[in-house]
Amino acid sequence: MFTTKLRRATDKQFVQVQLAGLAMLIRGQLQLVSASSGPEGSGVKNQGGPAVIVNCVSLQDAQECMAFAARNGVLISVFNGKSEDGTLPAYDGCMAVDLSAVKF
Residues 14-62: pLDDT tens digits? Predict the structure, then answer.
């Protein structure tokens, strides 16, 4: 099973969420962020920040992420690339949706 805990939008509590359906619907990359290692293979420590990062490659990917977040009631952060200090502008425990690769 492809599951993780994400923060609920309503009360900020963590809930178990199944990500396999979303992973099959998007063409971009979906990364689980562990508390000890940051994005897989990056070697960066995750001190807060998102639990899942979705790197969208199309507008349809972004729409699927929004629909997924609405269905599951999870907190979502949408951004276009990293901030000036190299961090992701995202809430702790949320699903971060990166639109930097989307061509509008």
Answer: 999 999 999 999 999 999 987 644 444 443 444 578 999 999 999 999 9
Other CB atoms within 10 Å distance of the CB of residue 4: 17
Task: Please provide residue 61's backbone torsions phi and psi, each rounded to the nearest 5 degrees.
Answer: -60, -45
Class of the CATH-defined domain 3-38+46-82+89-98: alpha beta
Task: Give the model confidence (pLDDT) of 61-73 as tens digits.
Answer: 999 999 999 999 9
CB 95 within 8 A of CB 75: yes
Tell me, what amino acid is at 93? G
Q: Which residues have CB under 8 Å from 58's CB, separation 6+?
A: 27, 28, 102
Structure tokens belonging to residue 53: 């990062």
